[in-house]
């Protein structure tokens, strides 16, 4: 693999870090709405969190995503870009040729499939850390942490090893089916709209999109992708939050059925507003970080060549 191909992984890492810094507070609110109990709406969730946990509550568990999401974004963007080049090479004999829609869709699906192996444990730990201060009420019984006054997990590493010791690899990959059903179509609705809108709003004659075009196209793509992914995101969040105090769901289908029976169809759209709103700035930051760092690396590479 030459340096040109590696640049996509490095740029993806930069974009991932930028998106976490921008989007983590909204991600925490989204997780509480989807997997928690007692919140009537988004505003009520925000006020309750602030009243009970202050500003720090919105950044709970951020250190782990900051390190890990950067890696997963690196893999997603690297796999997506290199798969596109490979398909163009195989189909047209030119890896630099603009990919067709079917090539972008296939590359997006490959990136989504590969990312699940990394993202599932990351999301599990993040959600467990976000949810462990949320009381779990079942049959009017409030379940509390093992040690009164202390959280269940002391941090991301402790959370990971605790789940691994108690539940094994299956526990670490709890929610993997729901993640697959979310991410494979989700990345198609992420990269394809971005490419379309970026090309549409970039002025004619420009070799590459300007930062404002990247920001807007990335935000629109993120809102579309996260908005449509909400039903499976709800299921994934519930499955992964399950187990902090007790195990309620036997699997993806059981989670879907129980959620529907207890709360109706509307439960699968819980958090859709915060998902779409959060998707815009996160994806704007993601694509800006990716495109600008990629452009900088290519410029530096050109300048050092004799």
UniProtKB/TrEMBL annotation:
It is found in: Mitochondrion inner membrane. It holds the Pfam family Mito_carr. The keyword Membrane applies. Keywords: Membrane, Mitochondrion, Mitochondrion inner membrane, Repeat, Transmembrane, Transmembrane helix, Transport. GO terms for cellular component: mitochondrial inner membrane. InterPro entries: MCP, MCP_dom_sf, MCP_transmembrane, Mitochondrial_Carrier. Solcar repeats lie at residues 3-86, 99-200, 209-296. It comes from the Eukaryota. Belongs to the mitochondrial carrier (TC 2.A.29) family. PANTHER family: MITOCHONDRIAL BASIC AMINO ACIDS TRANSPORTER-RELATED, SOLUTE CARRIER FAMILY 25 MEMBER 48. This is Solute carrier family 25 member 48. It comes from Cuculus canorus (Common cuckoo).
